[in-house]
Amino acid sequence: MKTNRFLTKIFVTAMFIMGIASVQANNVQISGTAVSGSNLTFNISWENSWFASAAPSNWDAVWVFVKYQDCNTKLWTHADLSTTAGDFTAGSPLQVDPVTDGKGVFVRRSAVGGGNISNVAISLKLNIPTGTYNYKVYGIEMVNVTQGSFQLGDAVAGYGFTPLTVDSNAQSNGLTTAQLGAYSADLQPSFPMGYNSFYCMKYEITQEQYADFLNSLTFTQQKNRVIVDPISPAGSYAIWSAYSYRNGLAIVTPGNNGAIPAVFGCDGTAGTPNSSNDGQNIAMNGISWGDLTAYLDWAALRPMTEMEFEKTCRGPLPRIDGEYPWGSTDITQSLSSSVTNSKMNNEISSVAVNNGMCNYYANSAAIGYGPTRVGMFATGSSGRLSAGAAYYGAMDMGGNLAERTIAVNAAGKNFTGALGDGNISATGFADVASWPSNTTASGVIFKGGDYVSSNAYVRTSDRSLFYSSAEARNYNVGGRGVR
User: Fold this and answer.
1) pLDDT for 4 beyond 80
2) What's the pLDDT score for residue 26?
């Protein structure tokens, strides 16, 4: 785990493709992209990849998915990929893992090892209609959360579960309210409890990633995913009426006539957008439950459950009462007011390194405070405690921004872990029927604390924000997804 860098996503160039452009996001680089027939090839790079044989005995990966734009209609669609193993190739030391629904692939190390991945060739096979298209290839860093038992709840956290072990029996037969404790509901085996393996986003969604999402939507879809009208002048901020809470998402090119969508980018310094100091890698705040679910559906991911949240943080280790996601009761405050290289891709804390580095308890909603660069506390030499890292390597599971998860209550208990399919509704909403309502967010709970809240909310097992308004756009709330 290390500081994140830029992810470059290229519009594919080939003899039947009409447009060329590029966009960026964090840590992964995708370059040299080309299409020949149904074969899509590119080179992939990222820093500090691992496949560990010792604890946590997991690996990191990149979730790679493709969008294609019809050159006549200008509409973007999620590309299905072949699910046949022989239709994928990867140069050493990587392998490509297809998924059963064909909505993307996981690219990861094929054997135990660690270090940077540099320009490894990948080939995928598209399964889309014949046509003339533009393409975008996206990559999101993930960590593998392995199958296995884990301990849920502790004796300190507010509204926490009754401490118990979630094992194969629990996942196979379900759990009852009597086992889980107050403020819970009976769970069927279909509910994702965290026992089964899954992938979790390594970082919270960044402002640049959210801009990339917006830039593949129609004008109508965009209108429901930001507060600004897409026809507003260049420089208009998208989530707040002005640059606030370190959110610089802004219009770069206005839309037109309700038909041509706007182009969004990052403009944290209110000048030339998408400059090196415009906050591209700062966590994306101000997104509602509807915004989060639309992004996850678009990326063919899904929301995580609060039980999966605890599994990602604690892993198989014994619980420590009152522990934070990095596995101890140590916590060191480091706010956005104490950073070096502000808003740049190497933004770093200026607070002396200590155990449990965490952006929490600014104790103020002032617009000058806000989230920091995702993964800011991790360096090439940091350990889990000083990096504030969760057990499997996910970053910022505590502090920075609160994260919405599926609650173990009457409204959330019927969640089955259904995945997004890469396409959202014509009006810009997730359309996965079994997910909690886009407008009410009934069945959603905040986890992990944030840059405003006290340390109590940062605790791994804390469930105090059970009844908070989860559908609104809040300055201290972001999110991530799983698959």
Assistant:
1) no
2) 54
Residue 21 has a pLDDT of: 28
Residues 21, 26, 32, 35, Cα dihedral to 10°:
-70
Contact 113, 42 (CB under 8 A): no
Q: What's the structural domain count of the chain?
A: 3
Instruction: Give me the half-sphere count of Cα atoms (radius 13 Å) on the Cβ side of residue 16.
Output: 14
CA angle 57, 58, 64 (to 5 degrees): 170
Q: Which of 133, 101, 143 is nearest to 33 (CA)?
A: 133
Tokens standing for 12? 């594919």
99 and 66 within one domain: yes
Tokens standing for 277? 């100091």
The residue length of the chain stands at 483
Distance in angstroms (rounded) separating the CA atoms of residues 401 and 293: 16
Residue 66's Cβ-count burial label (10 Å; 0-12, 13-18, 19+) is buried
Tokens 């279909």: give the residue: 190
Q: How far apart are the first and last CA of the chain?
A: 20
Token digits for 458?
């940062």
Contact 205, 25 (CB under 8 A): no
Q: What are the distances in angstroms from CA 56 to CA 65, 118, 147, 171, 402?
A: 27, 24, 11, 21, 25
Single-letter amino acid code for the residue at 398 = G
Residue 39 sits in the same domain as residue 16: yes
CA nearest to 269, candidates 344, 371, 340? 344
Residue with tokens 């403009």: 267
DSSP 178-210: HHH-SS---B-TTS--S-S-EEEESSPPBHHHH
Last residue of a domain, one of 121, 145, 169: 145
On whether residue 293 sits in a domain, the answer given is no
Structural tokens at position 418: 């259904």
Do 39 and 127 fall within a single domain?
yes
Band (7; pLDDT cuts 50, 70, 90): very low
Same domain for 311 and 402, yes or no, is yes
252 and 182 share a domain? no
**What pTM was estimated for this model as a whole?**
0.94
One-letter identity of residue 458: V
Query: Which of 130, 145, 160 is a domain's end point?
Result: 145
For residue 475, being part of any structural domain is answered with yes
The answer to the question of residue 237 being in a domain is yes
- Residue 264 pairs in a beta bridge with 251
How far lies 287's CA from each of 133, 207, 251, in Å?
31, 10, 16
Phi and psi (nearest 5°) for 42? Answer: -160, 170
The domain of 244 spans: 207-280
Domain match, 475 and 364 both: yes
CATH code for the domain of 69:
2.60.40
Q: Is residue 364 part of a domain?
A: yes
Same domain, 320 and 390: yes
Could you report the per-residue pLDDT of 85-100, keeping only the tens digit for each?
A: 899 999 999 999 999 9
Do 56 and 77 have their domain in common? yes
Strands 105-109 and 94-98: antiparallel
